[in-house]
Automatic annotation (TrEMBL):
Matches recorded under InterPro entries: Cyt_c_oxidase_su3_a-hlx, DUF420
Transmembrane intervals: 50-69, 81-98, 118-142, 163-185
Keywords: Membrane, Transmembrane, Transmembrane helix
Keyword Membrane carried by entry: yes
GO molecular function: cytochrome-c oxidase activity
Origin superkingdom: Archaea
GO cellular component: membrane
Gene Ontology biological-process entries: respiratory electron transport chain
UniProt-recorded name of the protein: DUF420 domain-containing protein
Gene3D superfamilies associated with the record: Cytochrome c oxidase, subunit III, four-helix bundle (1.20.120.80)
UniProt source species: Halobellus limi
Length: 186
């Protein structure tokens, strides 16, 4: 019996999503011992939030360009921008999880009212959207990688991709707001 990814996109999406989210929650929850992580200079760890802000902002641009290209039926450039966004997201996540595994969450130093009514809601929506994006991204990616372009038009790739891109964009934008609140304003 031949197993083909194109015939099991939903199942693969579920498995990859569960594994990915388990890894994220393990890192955030402190399950990953810092002793297992590579050692880098403190300056590198301190630079991670700033590098991630650049990655997030760049991802906003690549998402917009990817949407623009597909609206112009430029599939090649659309694919390049969406894969670039995925690479930016993976780099962001690896750096974020590395830093949080070493140092834990960054403390918010601003006023309590801003913390409760601006920072926490922004952070919560950012995280919720990032989590919601994982299965959507795997789904559209697996559809795109397992089919020729002509067949994609017969799948939910376009419809799910629109939702994924919109949620991804908002998540990245809110991540930038969180960065500004933590590292620029306060």
């Amino acid at each position: 019996m031949e197993l083909r990814a194109r015939d099991h996109v939903l199942g693969l999406t579920a498995v990859l999503s569960v594994v990915s989210l388990a890894a994220v929650f393990a890192a955030v929850g402190g399950v990953v011992p810092a002793s297992l992580l590579p050692v880098v200079p403190d300056a590198v760890v301190e630079a991670i939030p700033h590098v991630n802000a650049v990655l997030s902002t760049t991802a906003l641009v690549t998402i917009v360009l990817g949407v623009r290209f597909i609206r112009r039926d430029d599939v090649r450039r659309h694919r390049a921008m969406m894969l670039a966004t995925l690479a930016l997201f993976v780099a962001f996540l690896v750096l974020y999880l590395y830093r949080i595994s070493l140092e834990g969450a960054t403390e918010f130093l601003g006023p309590e009212a801003v913390y409760q009514f601006v920072y926490l809601p922004t952070l919560a929506v950012h995280v919720a959207l990032a989590i919601a994006c994982i299965p959507l991204l795997y789904y559209v990616l697996l559809l795109a990688l397992s089919r020729p372009v002509a067949e994609l038009y017969e799948t939910p790739h376009r419809r799910v991709g629109r939702v994924a891109a919109a949620l991804w964009f908002v998540s990245f934008a809110l991540g930038d707001v969180v960065y500004v609140l933590l590292y620029v304003v306060y």
